[in-house]
Amino acid sequence: MTIQHRTVDIEAAAKLWRDDLSASQIAKRFGVSRNVIVGLAFRNRSLFPWRGDAGKKTRAPGQAKTARPRKRAPELKREPEIPATAYDAERLQSAKLLHHLTAGECCWPFGNGGPYLFCAAETTGRYCRNHHARSLPKKNEGKA
Description:
Elements: H1 7-18, H2 23-30, H3 34-43, H4 86-91, E1 96-97, E2 109-110, E3 117-118, H5 129-135
Antiparallel strand pairs: 1-3, 2-3
């Protein structure tokens, strides 16, 4: 038996609803999906009274969910600060903000906090000759 959207079928489904049958059980009797019954109940609220949270599973009293202890985040290693040089002090006079840099200008950052300024010396790569040399590891560094 399939459900028709006739008053007789709607009232029959509503009676089963009031007799505390679930939407799935009513759907099986009519040979339709559960969603058909839920939609029918939604559109005909006066015939299908609200049941509250009766169908939902509840936890037994005293069964409170306990929070698991959180693991602490690993300590982040701070990058060693690159000390300023006399060259940096000279370049600071003509330093630019990042959005003012153009292609062919050194993008070596100055300072530890904002606003960040950049070297802006003319170059063919990312960094000017001086800053490129400082970006490379020293020959004795890294060997243990």
